[in-house]
Amino acid sequence: MDFLTLIQVLDSTIRLTTPLLLACLAGLYSERAGIFDIGLEGKMLAAAFFSAAVAYVSGSVWLGLGAGIVSSVVLSGLHGLASITFRGNQLISGLAVTMLAQGFTVLVAQDWFSQGGRTPSLSGGARFTGITLPFADTLAPVPFIGPIYAELISGHSILVYLAFALVPLTWWVLFRTRFGLRLRAVGENPAAVDTAGVSVTGLRFSAVIICGVLCGIAGAYLSTALQAGFVKEMTAGRGYIALAALIFAKWRPWHALWACLLFGLLQAIALRYQSINLGGIVIPVQVMDALPYILTVVILAGFVGKAIPPRAGGEPYVKER
Amino acid sequence: MDKMPRWADVVLIPLISILLAAVLSALVILAIGENPIAALKLMVQGSLGSTYGWGYTLYYATSFMFTGLAVAVAYHARMFNIGGEGQAMVGGLGVALVLLFIPFPHWTLALVVAIAAAALFGAAWAAIPAYLQAARGSHVVITTIMFNFIAAAFLNYMLVNTLRPQGAMDPATERFSPNVHLPTLHEMLVPFGINFSKAAPANFSLVVAIIACVLVWVLIWRTKLGYEIRAYGHSESGALYAGISPFKIIMIAMLISGALAGCMAINNVMGEAERLVLNATENAGFIGIAVALMGRNHPFGVFLAAILFGFLYQGGAELALWTSIPRELITVIQALVILFTGALDNMVRMPLEKLFLAMRRRGA
Amino acid sequence: MTDPAIELKGISKSFGPVQANKDISIRVMPGTIHGIIGENGAGKSTLMSILYGFYKADSGEIWIDGSETQIPDSQAAIAAGIGMVFQHFKLVENFTVLENVILGAEDSGLLKPSLTRARKALLDLAQEYGLNVDPDARIDEIGVGMQQRVEILKALYREAQILILDEPTGVLTPAEADQLFRILHRLREEGKTIILITHKLREIMEATDQVSVMRRGEMVATRTTSQTNPEELAELMVGRKVLLRVDKVPAQPGAKILEIKGLRVRDDKGVERVKGIDLNVRAGEILGIAGVAGNGQSELMEVLGGMRAGSGEVLLNGQPLELIGANGRAIRDKGIAHVPEDRQREGLIMDFHAWENVAFGYHHDEKYSRGLLMDNAALRADTEAKIEKFGIRPPNGWLSAKNFSGGNQQKIVVAREIERNPDLLLVGQPTRGVDIGAIEFIHKQIVALRDAGKAVLLVSVELEEIFSLSDRIAVMFDGHIMGERLPDRTDEKELGLLMAGVAGEAA
Fold first, then answer.
1. The Cα angle at residue C448 between residues C442 and C449, in degrees rounded to 5
2. What architecture is domain B53-323?
3. Cβ pair B121, B238 in contact under 8 A
4. Residue range B180-188: average pLDDT?
5. Whether A306 contacts chain C with CB within 8 A
6. What CATH number does residue C285 fall under?
7. CA of B251: how far to CAs of B135, B257, C156, in Å?
């Protein structure tokens, strides 16, 4: 593999990492607050559709992004209603949210656009386009550094930079602010938060809403930046890979970045090569597809350091003495 | 005292939930400019109005009975087996392998072996998540989700790289021998002078599914093992006290669950397609969750809910054929049923409990 | 006259059909320690949770320092100067002490200033009240006594004037408890008002100025502590003269049934809780194990009941038991029956019918099964017989276990285990949360089993129960047996010292 191919694969890795990272951080806020969310996939899917649809109709990708976020937050609210207000089963709720999105997006897409459950393809102002960073063109001819800066770092859409910037921001919020302290506390022991005079419901809802916003951005990125328009089931399991990454990262922001980069790289490789020949051993592309899940199972099994989720995760909060 | 009579819990709550789901779906249909009443009529006509419709309804219902029972058995041991989809896929592989490579003289023998293979492969696919839950406490929901994706990749590999006949474009196996063809409902009913549709895919697997419902009922409510499974499901510390090994119960319940999900393959792979194709399960594993929730994890409830969802699937297909409403409407209804019966259970339950409490106070 | 620090007027609270508090009024004067005593389930904790805004009262008023105050949530209670130390601590285990202290009382959006201020405040509080805690220690790395201090510090950091402690000594050794009471006295000297909830008469007599007695959700009396005595309070608590001693003939111990040699047991976290003990129980005797909760008694019972693994040697009728855990069935087959400490989590499946619970643990018996199947008809017939013989009310085997009262639930468990006619009966906290009538009945059943020549190993944190049932008493502290005594040659004081870890004979 030559240098330029490597740059291309890594460039593709960054693009593919972005939606994973956004969704993974979304899940991180929710699960750190004690609300398990296996519905990341559904929220991304809904946002992907609504942002593409609104961007197409309005011609503005920003309106599209807004619509995507709103749709994702609505689903988050539903998940919150089920798992916080009505103390329902969070896993079942997450599953229902995903199914709802899978059905609803196609239903509405068909009704609005009659193109077999897809939106018309987007162009111009209805898409996020790459941003050329300062001096990218100037530096491009410089050997080694040039391609890395101009091809790999520069030229992505604003959402890519946002996703990566969210990693340190999330770390800071979680570990350096009052909100973060309370958020972590409510995921570990909601009774401690409640008796300290802070609303468990309020905290958990805000976490779930943040989760919705980030999933919304992730979905919008899929349909308006990574691709030009919505197609049925376009998230293709990314919500679950993000969930896998979150477990892989043991619910920590920086580790989430590394996990998402790893899974993004696997996707990039799978996209580019049908099979990989490692000194005589041929690895079929399906192994690449399955690897994030296999790695997560290995982590979950505790063979490589045990993944302990937030202690109150998945349990509805019921007051007791 | 219980807050509500049992019948309210078992019958009323699921009914209200499905009603809520139906009302919301009707609103969706209205919103896309179709008439919900006409749509319902079309669904009933298309799925129950002819033996052809019934044949499809029962075909789908057969699959859903297996996956619904799979979820229900695990649920009694307080585990949420979300991996029915993957287990059914791998069960399909088991069925395909024995039917492709063993020359069976007659379908009856083939069916017995196919059931064994389906159950074995399905159980094997559930075994790793089960073991990780039992021995290492890895959450079975997450691992079974992961195993669904791993199964999909595995099957993709097997069909594309290994089992696809030379020169074929489809990622699918060869057709099975005609010797292993399962009787369809048409063939089964002819001796009784009933002319059931020839084209419909419902087949002998329906009988197997109904037997499975009965066996699961016996297992859960009549056997010592079922007693232990239910006891463990209600209280792990209680089970430990009573000398019931949590490890054993987790393993056995998940293996039975996986085997049941795997057995779905005799319906769709052996009974209908008569070869293994990619994505043969068509989400039946997930529908099993809705079926089990709706049927309150009771085999008879699962039986009824499976038929209801069979009706929805066939009705939905008819809708897609004759109106502008796409099949995905059914996914929406299914999601709403899961939401109301599973996650928003308390929303339906709490007002009802208050109502019953008030009625009792007045009575007392 | 000064206004009371707290006055509750006509507080009522129901949970569904259960009325936990009925028209309760109480006045607590500032700068006093006010005890509230009552049996388990008398409604003490509910009342205090209402005062702390954790629950909302159905009716009634709360007056603080002479003015009516609404306390809809804990926030309001904190603002009104109330702090509460719950029986089960409300701490975030993987946070530091400092983080737990500031949680909910942060000064600003950023943590740093709050942490700095809290660190200094903790130093001051430590000096003022002797409440020393390492501010950077993680909660899961410090002991329960320290954790309780953190809870008190949390309240003081929020400038609480009124401090409520719910059963604070349940998890403490007597020494730690004494230390706690010294701190409480310091707080009183500083003018704080303290409400101490307990069911232990001794603590009331030692620590309080005033005492109010609750029974079955009602406030039955308030006394000045110095003008009352334990006998009067006990009578007020239970509503009639208590028969503390069970009538029984002297024991006639026979052969050794149970021999324990060098037994060691670890808990779920891997901490050693039983640290090499030796015990014997003979046929026809009741060995009572006294001790503060959490000193290894539970783990001892769990190992003998096959619920937990252990190491060392345990012989039953001279035959070694396998201490591998999760082998309750084999243990039962050898002739051990077990009335567990927690009937709701262990002894019964609350959602099972009574008739299903009657075979719980014995469902493999030929009596209850046919091959792979359960014999439900046999179960139901057996249930009818037990309901009759043990006077279980209501006499309906189809009810779920959760629909019986605590006493009747315990009767179901005791009926099941005693009817086995075991060689050895393990009994943990047999009368916790059980009404007086059922206590007498259950005690008589246990003594009857002894009189039939069986061995009984009893664990109870209630010294009165230990005294009234045991033929021999062993005291457990920190995983060790501190000594054995005969009930008529010892007293509560001596046992109390042993329970506190003060060594036996020599002391």
1. 95
2. Orthogonal Bundle (1.10)
3. no
4. 94
5. no
6. 3.40.50.300
7. 10, 10, 50
Nearest to B242 among C342, C360, C372 (CB): C360
Give the global pTM: 0.90
CA angle, corner B66, sides to B61 and B70, nearest 5?
135
Give residue A229's domain range: 3-239
CA distance A232 to B250: 37
Tally of helices (H runs) and strands (E runs) in chain A? 13, 2
Name every chain B residue with its beta carbon within 8 A of the beta carbon of C396: none
The residue to which tokens 């049992």 are assigned: B6
Nearest CA in chain B to C358: B242
Give the domain ranges of chain B.
1-34+327-364, 53-323
Is there a contact between A297 and B80 if contact means CB atoms under 8 Å apart?
A: no
Q: Are residues A103 and B143, on separate chains, in Cβ contact within 8 Å?
A: no
DSSP string, A80-139: HIIIIIS---HHHHHHHHHHHHHHHHHHHHHHHH-SSS-PPPP-GGGS--PPPPTTHHHH
Token look-up 């401090």 returns C163
Q: Is A178 on the interface with C (CB under 8 A)?
A: yes
- d(CA C408, CA C391) in angstroms, rounded, equals 8
C66 and C168 together in one domain: yes
The set of chains that have 3 or more CB pairs under 8 A with A is B, C
Pairing of strands C162-166, C424-428: unpaired
In this complex, do A289 and B153 lie within 8 Å of one another by their Cβ atoms? yes
* Cα C476 from Cα A216, distance rounded (Å): 59
Q: How far apart are CA A35 and CA A312, in angstroms?
A: 8
> Inter-chain contact B357–C17, Cβ cutoff 8 Å?
yes
Contact A188 C93 (CB under 8 A): yes
pLDDT (0 to 100) of residue B203: 96
**A237-257 burial: b if 16+ Cβ within 10 Å, else e:** bbbbbbbbbbbbbebbbebbb
Helix (H) or strand (E) holding C310: strand C310-316
- Quote the pLDDT of residue C316: 95
Residues written for chain B:
364
Q: Give tens-digit pLDDT for A168-181.
A: 999 999 999 999 99
Q: Residue A311: inside a domain, yes or no?
A: no
CB contact under 8 A, B2 and C400: yes
Residue contacts between A and B (CB atoms, under 8 Å):
158
Which of C217-224's residues contact partners 24+ apart within 8 Å by CB, and which partners? C217/C19, C217/C20, C217/C21, C217/C22, C217/C24, C217/C42, C217/C43, C218/C22, C218/C23, C218/C24, C218/C43, C219/C24, C219/C25, C219/C26, C222/C26, C222/C27
Chain segment C117-165, per-residue pLDDT in tens: 999 999 999 888 888 899 999 998 888 889 999 999 999 999 999 999 9
Query: Three-state DSSP class for C351?
Result: coil
> Model confidence at C506, in pLDDT bands (50, 70, 90)?
very low
CA of B345 to nearest chain A CA: how many angstroms apart? 7
Q: What residue of B is the nearest CA neighbor of C363? A: B224
Percent of chain B with pLDDT over 70: 99
Q: Of C181, C206, C238, at which residue does a domain stop? A: C238
Same domain, C362 and C262: yes
What is the rounded CA–CA span in Å between residue B311 and residue B55? 10
**Backbone phi, then psi, for B96, in 5-degree steps?**
-60, -45
User: Within this chain, do residues C226 and C260 fall inside the same structural domain, yes or no?
Assistant: no
* CB-CB under 8 Å, C86 with A195: yes
Closest-approach residue (CA) in chain C for A203: C104
**For residue A32, which of A241, A177, A165 has the smallest C-alpha distance?**
A177
Which pair of tokens denotes residue A210? 């943040």
Both tokens assigned to B167: 């020169």
Residues C218 and C310 in one domain: no
